[in-house]
Amino acid sequence: MSDHGDSRPPIDLTAQRLASSRWRVQVVDESTSTNADVAERFRGGEPEGLVLVAEHQSAGRGRMGRSWVTSPRASLIVSFLLVPGAGSGGVPGGRWPWLPLLTGVAAARAVRRVTDVQVDLKWPNDVLAGGQKLGGILLERVERRGEAAAVVGIGINCAQTTDELPVPEATSLSVLTGAPVDRSALLEALLEELADCYDDWQAGADLRPAYLELCITPGQQVRVAVPGGEVLGEAVDVDPSGRLVVRTEAGDERLGAGDVVHVRPQR
C-alpha cells in the first residue's frame, strides 16, 4: 500500500457547493466495496439518492469480477443508488443498459470540466485519457420486495503516481496534468453532471448522440471476447438499446454489455 495517503487531502463535504446537492452524500474512510455497501443499504430500506464515497476501497470489483483496489485518497470512488422511474411506474428494463453509458458521459464531462483533460469512453464501461485507462464503471441490479434498483459505481484515478498504477495501460489525472487534483471539485462536478444525464434519460431524452461523441470504440477493428468464443469485425455503432454493433463477415452482430467479457482492438 502507498505511503502517500496521509499527505493527500480528504474529500471535503463542508463546502457549500455540496450542501445544496440533490444527492445524499456520505463519505467513509474505508469500504471493501462501495457497490456492495450501497446494495446492502437498499435491501435494508434506503431510498434512491444515496451516494457513498470511500477514501479507500480494499476489495472493490470491476466487470466480470475483476478487482479494483486503490491506494488511500488516490481515487474518486463513488457509488450511486438509482431507482429509475421511482414513483412514476418505473423505467422499462430494456432501457437500463443505458445507465452505465450515461454515467460514462457524466464522468467524462466532469473530468473535462475540472481538469481540461480530454477524456474518451470505451464501450461499455471504461473511461480513457490518451488511450490509457483512467477509470471504470460498474452497474449492478439489486432487488428488494419486487422493487429493482441500480447501483452504479465509478472509480476515477486521481492522485496515483506512476508506481502506484496497477498496470502500464492505466493512468491518473495527476500523471496527466503534473499537478494535484481537487477530488472534492471532481465529486461536485460528477454529482451535477450525473443528475443532469440521469434526469434527461428518465424523461425520455436520447443520449446516444452525446455518448457517440465521446466513445472511441465505433470505427475500430475489434476482437470481442464472449462466453465460448470471439466476435471479430469492425465496431460500427452503439444502437438505441446500448448494444455494440460489430460488422463481421457473417453480418452485423449486436452485443450487450452483459454478453461481453472484454473488447480489444485487433492487432
Explain the overall architecture.
It is a single chain. The chain starts with 15 loop residues before the first helix and ends with a strand. It folds into two domains: about 5-215, Bira Bifunctional Protein, Domain 2 (BirA Bifunctional Protein, domain 2, 2-Layer Sandwich); about 215-265, SH3 type barrels (Roll). It has helices at about 15-20, 35-45, 100-115, 175, 185-200, 210-215, and strands at about 25-30, 50-55, 60, 65-70, 75-80, 120, 125-130, 130-145, 145-155, 220-225, 230-240, 245-250, 250-255, 260-265. It is about 25% helix and about 30% strand. It has about 270 residues and is α+β, with helices and mostly antiparallel strands. A hairpin with a 2-residue loop joins β12 and β13. The protein has six helices and 14 strands. The longest helix is centred in the last third of the chain and has 20 residues, at about 185-200. α3 runs antiparallel to α5 (about 185-200). It has a seven-stranded mixed sheet, with helices on both faces.
Give a quick account of the main beta sheet: strands, pairing sense, barrel closure.
7 strands, mixed
The amount of beta strand, in percent, is: 25-35%
**What strand order characterises the main sheet?**
1-2-5-9-8-7-6
> Strand pairing plus helix content: what structural class?
alpha+beta
Give the N-to-C terminal Cα separation.
34 Å
The H/E string reads HEHEEEEHEEEEHHHEEEEE
Mean pLDDT: 90
Give the overall silhouette: globular
The radius of gyration is 18 Å
How many β strands by DSSP? 14
**At the fourth CATH level, what is the homologous superfamily of the largest domain?**
Bira Bifunctional Protein, Domain 2
